[in-house]
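Can't attach files on this board, so I'm pasting raw text. These are the components:
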Amino acid sequence: MIFRQLFDHKSSTYTYLLAERAGGEALLIDPVDENTDQYVRLLNALDVKLVLAVDTHIHADHVTALGSLAAKTDCVTAMGEASGVECVSVRFSEGEKLRVDNLHLDILYTPGHTDDSYSFLLPDRVFTGDTLLIRGTGRTDFQNGDPAAQYDSLFGKLLTLPSDTFVYPAHDYNGMTVSTIGEELRHNPRLQVGSRQAYIEQMNALDLKDPELMDIAVPANRCCGIRAAA
Amino acid sequence: MIFRQLFDHKSSTYTYLLAERAGGEALLIDPVDENTDQYVRLLNALDVKLVLAVDTHIHADHVTALGSLAAKTDCVTAMGEASGVECVSVRFSEGEKLRVDNLHLDILYTPGHTDDSYSFLLPDRVFTGDTLLIRGTGRTDFQNGDPAAQYDSLFGKLLTLPSDTFVYPAHDYNGMTVSTIGEELRHNPRLQVGSRQAYIEQMNALDLKDPELMDIAVPANRCCGIRAAA
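---
Top answer:
Structure tokens for the assembled complex are below.
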């Protein structure tokens, strides 16, 4: 498998490129609009053809590259059914798969950070979006976020995966690139609260500022990042 | 194998943690002083014991954590013989190995960025310091840098490795985390010049500013990052 983790310095977003083999098909997860040319150069260097670009959810902190990639590569774009966005080629649901050649990623619906948050699972790794971060979890105070739903997504789904499953989140702010389910279960401070109610109270007490780009990014991302001409 | 790539946002440095197994010994390559506590937390979380901390060379852009890690963990510290530094426990040479449990990394002397630059090799990956970067090479205009020596280190050693060898550099400024020897041979613009002389001329024409921290970092790193009390 070809696997690349790319980091957007401005928004601390991780983008993932996956392909089964050189000469084959590729998938991008959570691409950032401003890095579109970098992705295209890398796809060419790796000799893979982008066939699918997906977002784990409607991001509030950066503009998605789904639209720009579709324009430059003719890839299919996809987001979850719960996103309600009209701009993508396909809307997926839990139980379906993302397919590029013989790589098949299981789709899990993992709401909580937003009501349209999904995770994508391979046998040895899971792409958790903003649901499960390294030593953290995504905030739940906007875009129909819901700490109770997040608790259920975490403890009912993601954290039931084998403990050596690698965790690849959509962001990290502390220079960490990967973790495992077992490591997060034991060492993620947000997961040590002991009950669903305590988790809800913890998340409701966070009192965070809105992301800087939120008023630009959310409307842009509902249109796959294709911003109306001025 | 346990393998973690860690990113220091301030200096865009990559630090690598390697261990054969949980419960065993660990190695850190190019740790950054300010992140010492993060490394100690991660070592504990992964249940590994730091036995060895090394720098690929005397860095000019950040202060090494070799001294602070030795103080906190009793690890052995090591740098190359060509560094001439007195503060480390061990000075290694080309042909020797870094050993943590049954992980044995071959040591290659790869001068050019500095005259004390080394690379460390496992069967499937190489840690190239500032000698080979992703789509770049380390500058050669200070600390006895030498573009001719760098050309020889690149074309005589690193680029002769199998083309699917993963390249893990000490820095990246563009959000890339890994590459391969084959990819760099084909797509690294610095490596497309065609001759040793053209490579030397290319490097001598770069005209870069000194790193911001150079006057602090280089003297500090000659003492393993242990700065004299004010």
